[in-house]
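Molecular record:
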Amino acid sequence: MNQIDIIKMVKKFSERWLLTAALMITGGLTGLLVSLMRPPIYESSAAFSVTIDYTQTGALSDIQEDQAMRGVGSVILSDRAIENALSRMNKESGMVLSQRDFSENSFLDREEFRWTLRYRDTDPKIAEVAVNAWAKSADEMIQEGLAHSLSCKSLLEELENLKTCLYNFPNGNTQINCGKNELESVVKYINEVSEQIQTEKKASLGLFHALSVSLVNGGIASGTAELGQRNLYVLSGALVGLFLSIIKTLVEEINRSKAI
């Protein structure tokens, strides 16, 4: 048995471009037919705009900016945000979705300083209600987290002042106002502030105090997801046609080599 002649096979395949084109067109049309038989899929989206107050932070590196942005994304994708969204859907619209269904049909995209939430469903109303509930729940968590982050920043500044006070207390520096008359009271207050800082830091959800996050638009269902799915089916069908043409040429070349 002779080896397969790759060059001859490629040449034969190129000579059959008409057959290849016909198979790809047939496959594409089949994909289009399948997509038309499936129920349409609607997508609803909402977006968060994120800004950083550089007057508070000074210049930040790309890594620091990325960390701040990823912190917002982590809150949006958190289990708590999704659980709150599902609860809100049930209370406000009477819609019941499982967390698994929600996770399979929800998407989060980032573009520069913008997070876009998307939800897809065959029912446009469900898509719209789901993404709005998700966006509102995430927004409430983000704003609450930012408030705690600001509180944490203030407490950290207060702690620094108390440490300075503690350092100067034994020296009898009366120019520094500690708000306390006894060293023991200063130490006790420092411990209290430190505990408050840990509590506020946990409640801040890892958000950066210099961030400003705004929900810029709510969810409106559209057919964009349906169009994307249809294009995918058509492309898949065309690729199947191309694959069949290649396989047909390969099989014929194998049979030819065996016959020699």
Notes: The two ends are 7 Å apart (CA to CA).
